[in-house]
Amino acid sequence: MSVADAATVRCSRITPAREAELYAAVLDLLREVGYDALTMDAVAARTRASKATLYRQWGSKPELVVKALRHQKPVSIGEIGTGSLRGDFYEMVMRADDCRMEQDASLMRGLAMAVRENADLLRALRELLFETEMTSLDQVLRRAVERGEIRADNPTLEYVPHMLVGALLVRGLIDSQPPTQAFLTSYIDAVVLPALGA
User: What predicted TM-score, i.e. pTM, was given to this entire model?
Assistant: First the structure.
C-alpha cells in the first residue's frame, strides 16, 4: 500500500485548526533540530498530543513531516491562471514572501540531506508533495503551449522543475544569500523564459 493509499484509509478525528497547529509544531521542530533528530515523542510533547494519536492519524514520521510541508502550501500551482506564462511564474513567486522563502529553502536543503539515508522519507516526498507539484506545474506549462507562448517540442520543458527548485535551493550556496522574490523573478526573466523560448 502506498503512502497516499494508507493516508486515505485512516479516518480523520482531528479538527482542521488542531491539524494546522500540529503541522506548525512539526515544522518548528524540523527547523530547530533537523529531520533525523525529530521524533514523534518530541512532536507529541510539543503539541500535547499522544504518540498513539499521531501514529493513528499519520502512520509514520515521514508522512507527518511531508503532510506538514504540503499544508503550508494551501494553494496549488495548478490554480494559478493569469493568462500568461510569465504572469503565472511571477504569481508562484509572489505567493511566499522573502522570509517564508528563506525558511522553505532551508527546510528543503535539510530534507535533501536526510533523504539520502531515508527511503521512506523520499517516497513520502515524492508521493505526497513532488508528484502533486509537478502535475500542477505541467498544467501551467501545458496552458502556455496551448496559448502558443512556447512550443510543445521544446526540450527545456522537461527541465523546468529542476531550474525552479535549483534556483531556490542553491542561491545560498553560490551567493551566500537567501532566495528572494526579486532574485527569482529576475531568474525567471533571464533564464527560464528564454530557455523556453517564451
Answer: 0.72
